[in-house]
Amino acid sequence: MTCFGPRQQTAALQQAVPKTRVQTCNSTPVRADGEFVLYWMIAFRRTEWNFSLQRAVEWAVELRKPLVIFEPLRVGYRWASDRFHRFVVDGMADNASRIAAMKNRGVVYFPYVEPERGSGNGLLAALAERACVVVTDDFPSFFLPQMVAATATRLPVKLEQVDANGLLPLRATDRVFTTAFSFRSYLQQELPPHLAQFPQSNPLARIQLPAMKTLPGTITRRWKPVSKELLLGDVAELAAFSIDHSVGVVDQRGGATAARQRLQQFLERRLAHYSETANEPDEEARSGLSPYLHFGHISPHELFHELTSCECWSPARLARKSNGKREGWWGMSTGAETWLDQFVTWRELGYNMASHRDDYERYESLPDWARATLDKHARDRREHVYSLDEFSAASTRDPLWNAAQTQLLREGRIHNYMRMLWGKKILEWTASPRDALDVMIELNNRYALDGRNPNSYSGIFWCLGRYDRPWGPERHIVGTVRYMSSANTARKFSVDGYLSCYGEGTHR
Ligand SMILES: Cc1cc2nc3c(=O)[nH]c(=O)nc-3n(C[C@H](O)[C@H](O)[C@H](O)COP(=O)(O)OP(=O)(O)OC[C@H]3O[C@@H](n4cnc5c(N)ncnc54)[C@H](O)[C@@H]3O)c2cc1C
């Protein structure tokens, strides 16, 4: 049997980045007499399986120029903290060592961590001033789309943004999908041609570009590259940055190497049982890849490639007809199909919403039925109303909810099943559904490693009815929005083990 992986990869090596994934952001032309091609790496923070980097390489080869990969990290963004800085800098360390190991003198890597708010201002412009063309990442969420749009009008050269978000290009459809079923049915019809258009696994391999020693001193003297100490993982170094130090680092390394290890462990040990165990409290039942996907340390294309290699799969196994069902279309094992439904259908459903609706993070984006029922019950008397600080400190009267929040505080994650309960209870314990939304966004994005992502909003808004349907009976406060209780959760999910890890009185 022919496996998808190697054969497909050979084909991908000869392919250019698909046009649907590339968008020109301004009308400024390419400057062939510039010194280098600039890749402004802001979301897909990896050197492999990355359409953006591949596109920048295409330009560098065409123009016969060196390539500068500029990976910045700002301090002034909302929720910037030790936790996220550490994770991103781990990724920088991996990128630095991978690029150094290639010994390609035509590629310069410039990782930059802004020491104070605003001190990085002017750096991109100074680099772009010397560049032929700038390529960046097209990520549909958080402050990135606004930042790229604002930058585009100011740059003296052409700026392109490239979409490496998922298996389906964001612009393959104009439609916003409101249910997983409709999106799955669409994918089953439209995804196959995109499965033949994968990024190169290593776009920097075997390229010959003119050599470039370093960046000009006028740039590196004013904007110093990230220190060796910080790259090596010295947590004390973070104290110097004006970020939130109360959200501490977690015991989980960021970067492509750690991501790949997790992926391999998951595929070898857990995938086969995923459909039965995904809701069990054992953290290892799931892949734990969402933070790496969020920070771009691993690509969904690589996940798919590794999965299909394990399954010895080829596209010939795809079902001829789409039926919108979770299982049976891919022609893979049950565990693989269940996992694909999470990391392709559910994950890309959130990216579809964020890329097509400017209000994807606002209450008004909820379906009409959900707003109507929540608004009808907005004034219902609440048994408990907690403040943001009480929620944040895990000091509600519900031990199970407090355990979930404790896991979020300590580890930057919540078990998926508990995460649903966590959100549903916030809806019941805030003065209004709008307040509930604010609290969920604040806590999820402040503490979760995978927060600030299109799927942060999918998950949070799902608790309020997005992607769902009305469920009877109509209840106090939640109306016909799907209800979850701690008591019910205790029947479906083994809470004892969970409470012994994260319940009151437990310590790290
Ligand atoms: C209130 C709430 C908040 C959430 N916030 C986030 C968030 O900030 N960031 C985030 O990535 N996910 C979020 N989710 C979705 C889900 O909880 C996580 O994606 C999942 O737990 C990540 O664990 P994993 O990587 O082990 O997933 P796996 O089960 O191994 O799945 C693989 C990948 O598929 C995707 N995925 C899995 N489940 C979902 C889902 N339900 N919806 C969308 N994509 C999914 C993720 O990218 C995940 O890494 C939230 C869910 C809820 C209910």
Uncertain segments: 9-13
Round the Cα radius of gyration to an integer and report it: 23 Å
The backbone outline, from C-alpha atoms, is globular
Tell me the fraction of residues in β-strands, as a range.
Answer: 5-15%
Structural class of the secondary structure composition? alpha/beta
SSE order in H/E notation? HEEHEHEHEHEHHHHHHHHHHHHHHHH
Main sheet?
A: 6 strands, mixed
What's the CATH H-level homologous superfamily of the largest domain?
HUPs
How far do the termini sit from each other? 48 Å
Number of strands: 6
Q: What is the count of distinct domains?
A: 2
Residue share in helix: 40-55%
Brief description of this entry?
With 508 residues, the protein is an alpha/beta fold. The chain has 21 helices and six strands.
Q: Characteristics of this structure?
A:
21 helices; alpha/beta; 6-stranded mixed beta sheet; globular; Rossmann fold; DNA Cyclobutane Dipyrimidine Photolyase, subunit A, domain 3; binds flavin-adenine dinucleotide
Architecture overview:
The chain is an alpha/beta fold and 508 residues long. It has 2 domains: 1-224 and 234-356, 3-Layer(aba) Sandwich (Rossmann fold), CATH 3.40.50; 363-502, Orthogonal Bundle (DNA Cyclobutane Dipyrimidine Photolyase, subunit A, domain 3). The protein is 44% helix and 7% strand. The protein has 21 helices and 6 strands. It has helices at residues 4-13, 51-63, 82-102, 123-130, 144-154, 180-190, 217-222, 228-231, 256-270, 274-277, 290-294, 300-310, 334-356, 368-376, 388-392, 399-411, 416-428, 433-447, 454-462, 486-492, 495-502; strands spanning 22-24, 36-40, 67-73, 107-113, 131-137, 158-162. It has a 6-stranded mixed sheet, with helices on both faces. Helix 5 links the parallel strand 5 (131-137) and strand 6. The protein is globular. Residues 9-13 have low confidence and may be disordered.
